[in-house]
Design the sequence.
């Protein structure tokens, strides 16, 4: 989902009433020059030409009232919810989409003038896949300051050839990182959470420390797999609650920077 904000209007209730009275989801009056009409702005900075073309085609097919303001798609607030649903469908088909970093946001700068084009392309894909807020100014990369240490690891991994690519036959199952993180998050608070326990016991044996998800540094992934194996061993040995919580906390901690 792109970055979203709103503008215009003093009474948001009016635009909601318009949506309720419109038979088709997008059959609403939209005057982008009306300062009293509440508008939703979707910032698409970083989207590729192909992604924007696909979005434009989708908007036309569904008759979505909209205007463009630079990198922003602007629609009336009355149709925000169905437009959000369209973006979710597009993300499943042609995503993921980059998370923009805006001027004025806390940022860390990385000068990559001497990086080869192949490594730059791998980095761009990895930043998008990891949903790290960033922007490019020629060969200089700016990333959100709170993601600085993650990007440091990522740069080191790309330089050493330790980042999984889409061309590799052996990578982790889809959603493996998110499943590890969410299960560990529940188990560190409640080691008796049955569905999370079952997920960990089922998933971890399928994971290889040398086959990370696309865009993830192999060293970081290996640490996650190792922490997951410790948690599985704790469950299988009938470890006490405190030990289970500690193992789950360790797994959560190594996953957290990448989620």
Sequence:
């Amino acid at each position: 989902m792109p970055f979203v904000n709103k503008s215009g209007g003093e009474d948001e209730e009016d635009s909601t009433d318009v949506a309720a009275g419109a038979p088709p989801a997008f059959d609403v009056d939209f005057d982008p020059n009306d300062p009293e009409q509440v508008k939703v702005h979707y910032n698409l900075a970083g989207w590729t030409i192909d992604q924007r073309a696909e979005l434009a085609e989708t908007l036309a097919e569904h008759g979505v009232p909209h205007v463009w303001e630079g990198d922003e798609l602007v629609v009336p607030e009355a149709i925000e919810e169905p437009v959000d649903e369209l973006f979710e469908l597009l993300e499943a088909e042609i995503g993921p989409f980059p998370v923009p970093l805006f001027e004025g946001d806390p940022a860390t700068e990385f000068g990559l003038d001497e990086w080869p084009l192949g490594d730059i392309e791998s980095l761009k894909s990895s930043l998008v896949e990891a949903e790290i807020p960033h922007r490019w100014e020629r060969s200089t990369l700016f990333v959100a300051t709170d993601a600085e240490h993650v990007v440091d690891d990522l740069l080191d991994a790309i330089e050493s050839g330790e980042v999984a690519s889409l061309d590799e036959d052996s990578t982790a199952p889809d959603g493996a990182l998110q499943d590890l993180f969410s299960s560990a998050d529940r188990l560190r608070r409640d080691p008796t959470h049955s569905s999370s326990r079952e997920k960990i016991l089922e998933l971890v044996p399928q994971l290889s420390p040398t086959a990370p998800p696309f865009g993830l540094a192999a060293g970081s992934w290996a640490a996650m797999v190792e922490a997951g194996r410790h948690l599985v061993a704790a469950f299988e040995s009938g470890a006490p609650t405190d030990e289970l919580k500690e193992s789950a906390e360790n797994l959560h901690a190594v996953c957290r920077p990448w989620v």
In short: Strands lie at 3-7, 39-43, 67-69, 72-76, 107-111, 134-137, 140-144.
